[in-house]
Write a structure and sequence with these properties.
Order of helices and strands: HHHHHHHHHH
Number of strands: 0
Shape: elongated
Largest sheet: none
Structural class: mainly alpha
Oligomer: single chain
Distance between the termini: 43 Å
Amino acid sequence: MPTFTFYNLSNDKRERIERAVKKEFARVPLISMSVKNIVDDSGIARGSFYQYFETREDVIKYILEKEFEKEEENYLKILEETKDVFEATYKYLVKRIEKQEKNSSYYINIFQYLRETKLMPLKKIDITKIKNYIDMNMFNLNNEYEIYAAIRVISMITFAKKMEILNNNVSKENGLKEYKEELEIIKNGLMR
């Protein structure tokens, strides 16, 4: 993770470094990431980079953690509006695909890195946040662990479908249709 020195930088400088890292993530698989390109694009000295991050992996983990936090925030906003895990998850996937299609190499490189390094997921699903927006009594589940497991299964199916669509293994239209059908099957099994 970043050092205290990084957090003491101005917002502008931190954002410049983050943009340069993301640009590099879009260019090559993360395993091949070049610190030289990051420092050149962000306008910092190579030595400064290592004052902000001890290793390349630290900067990767930092950016990934920020991505996951942003994704969780986006999902919870949709969930707050819909109050329905299944509708929210479908709408979330549609929005993610639209965003990620614009920069698919960035996201594909992130997913590839996560798969290769076995870091997935970096963060556990916070069931307490989800419980704030939905009626948990609607589910045919006995305890919080079962609810957590069901949401994790939905998350895995969502991730798999997103990767199929971004990798062009299935058209966006067909992929979203299949995904909606898969969610309906899960919903029928989980709801009272």
